[in-house]
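Input record (one chain):
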Amino acid sequence: MIKGLKKGIVALITAGALVFVLGNPNTYAASYTDFGPASFATEDGKYELTIRTTSVEKNVTIWVYDLYRVNRNSGAVTSMNGDTSPLSVRLCNASTGNCTAFKSFWNGNSSAIFTNMKAGTFYVDIRDSWASYYFKGKVAAKTYSWNPDDCWLDCN
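The corresponding structure, as predicted from the sequence alone:
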């Protein structure tokens, strides 16, 4: 009986060690990659930032900050004080040219989230909705292995 118990314990320890060393095949370590920051201006005909997604890091958050509006007629520059309501963003595939729909930035933290993107290189394209102004500021991005919509505080 004790021999059988010893064999069972050894088998259990061995199985546990294999899972510890090899990991669970259905999970992977959380990972992310930062892109930017970069300066941008809307309506300049240029993409704001280039990012890369992978089969693991397929969720993307785009942030804008240090945002100013510039009056086209007078050249007057005014801080937006975190108001991102005139802006929206999309991601365009560098290989195919296909783009996502434009998304609004969430004013709570000036971000927009794209989930389940295909692996590839994407251009960040920001537009504004005010005819008499263009906007300038900073943009940054992060690709994630988890869905940032599921994280209220911090997934790291």
